Amino acid sequence: RVPSQEAQDEAFRLRVERAAEARIATERLVNEEMQTKAELAGLFAQIREMTLRSAGVTSAPPPTATSAADELARVKRAAEAEIESRKREFASLQADIGRENATLRRELASVRAKLNAKLGVGAATNAESESSPWAAEFSFASPASFAAVES
Prior knowledge:
Blueprint lengths: L4 H50 L13 H52 L23 H8 L1
């Protein structure tokens, strides 16, 4: 026997309600757990302070990264600094390669001119055609194009 459309709709509605209630209960548990952890961290800090005071320590202990947020912020800053350093290194390498490329092009033009002079090749048959292996161009994108891709 096939259940009616109303029965199927009701069963679906109940499943959706149960799933929503389960999600809400899970969120409440997570929030309570976070609150409990924060309270425990506060209690442990108080216990540490009281222990240090009872041991006669009068100066404050050196600051430590006790919160996960402080540690994450520190790691993020370090990662961003590393990324910037690598970007600068890449730009420097790219500039060096560009300079070397220009030098090689000048040398190639000089060799090409000497070869053409020895072979007696005129300007009309110069090796600048698209099918010539001499016509190969090697270039790199500008650093600005990489910045545009990242954003």
